[in-house]
Amino acid sequence: MRPSTGFKVFRTTALIVVVTSLVAPLVWMVAASLKTNVDIYDSAKALVFTPTLDNYGTVLQQANYVQFIVNSLWVAFAATALSLVLGVPAAYSMSRFNMRKSALVVLMARVIPGVSLLVPWYYVFSNLRMVGGFGVLILSHMFVSLPLIVYIMMGFFDGLPEELEEAALVDGLTHIGAFRRITLPLSVPGIATAGILSFIFSWNNFMFALVLSGADTKTLPVAIFDFVGYASIDWGGLMAATTVVTLPIMVIALFVQKYIVSGLTAGATKG
Amino acid sequence: MPAVTAPERAPRGASVMPDTPGWARWANDHRKWLFAAPAMAFVAVLIIFPLAWTVYLSLTDSAGSVRAESEFIGFRNYVDVLSDTDRFWPAVARTGAFTGVALFFEVVLGMAIALLLWRPFRGEKWVRVAILLPLVATPVAVGMMWRLIFDPNIGLANQALGWIGIGPQPWLAGQHTALPTTIFIDIWQWTPMVVLILLAGLTSLSDEPQEAAMIDGASAWQRFRHVTLPLLMPTVIVAILLRGIDALKTFDILYATKGRGGGSFHEVETLNVYAYGLSFDYNEYGLSSTVLILFFLIIIGSMWALTARRKGADR
Question: Per the database entry, which stretches of residues form a coiled coil (chain A) (predicted)?
């Protein structure tokens, strides 16, 4: 089935429109972050302007963003690591022993509105004097990461032939030994997919940190609001802050594109 | 049975097993629950217990502080919320409109873009990268980015309208234009998600039905309508299901663009934003729990309706 020339011209035109509408707003955001606030208000300087890094100076020095970057990295990393430790063996059990009902309970977490958990959490964790600390932030982010990891890894283990483990049993390994030495090493692509996606979701999470973080433990999505005042907005600073939040994750996405796509579409085509 | 016969067939296995300590053998025998239990316990403590508490709170007049004394008042909160035509029902309508309109455009545009990307072409890799960018961007940051673009005075959107001779629009600042504008932002960010899911579905289809239809002289539209679309339907339902659940629960871009309470006229106040405000701006825990339970029932109900249709389509 070779596409006709007419279709090719149409497809190229359509794709240019699609790509432009997806990328142009992001380019505009980065451009505004490199302008002074005077230039942002001047429509004549929309595309031609003298770039400045002043806004990034404000973000990183005055607004204490280095601290918030470290917070975000730490919370996302810890939530992902802990969720992998809990989630990968659970997904293995649920896949091999066909525990569909148990799996459903874990996956419920994807459906429940986060607000309904926040009030009880806030009560319990403030009694434990944990609100504002990293512990509660990491736990709350695991609420997003763990179901995601179980979901992706179950699909992965479903597709991993059981014969490999049976062969290891014949060779004298225990079941747990076979999981550790045969299954886990073969699951590295699946674990990478689940881990990367969990990291991104945690990095982007806003609502839990909004309620549960303190002034020192704020993550980046919450810190963005420091640039929105009641009366006015520091647009240059705000756009530099949004660029600092989004650019790293977009650059990472370029390199691990394959994993992100397979994670986001996991289980979608099983019907 | 292999556990019994394996030692006979593999003497090495038999010689290893007696060396292993008792706890390791116990762990081996109970691995099913040993592996699953920690994750299940985590879910039980952090999700099922709070959910049960939310159900309980919805039957009390808890307010002010969660530690304050509260009284069991039965279903009075439910009567209050369900008869509230001021905030609750408008929020239900906004949630429905937001999800319905956003989903419609995301599926239609997503399908069109997925079909464009279906067959290989030069530069495919770059197009796929562009599609991934909105998806991985932090939703709050995306909200802020569009807030600048849609700013009535300095935004690019009104500037662009000026070039083609259309007057400036209030966008996010207008009482009636705010909700459509946030829907547009949702479509911008999440259509790529639908593209990726549908594309995965399209690539898993076999070519034969397409070729057969072509030999029968079917036009491109006929092939899509009567061959590709029916085969792809299960994937379309999955995309609607995954995207729909998240669209119903949209919070980040609404909070980033309009702030607390969905703006001063509550113009983008959906159920999730309303419940958040009741909990953390007004400390009305009883009422907010009631709204959340009803919201949860709406989500489950719409999922159930969709999966029922999916099973119907399979038959």
Answer: none
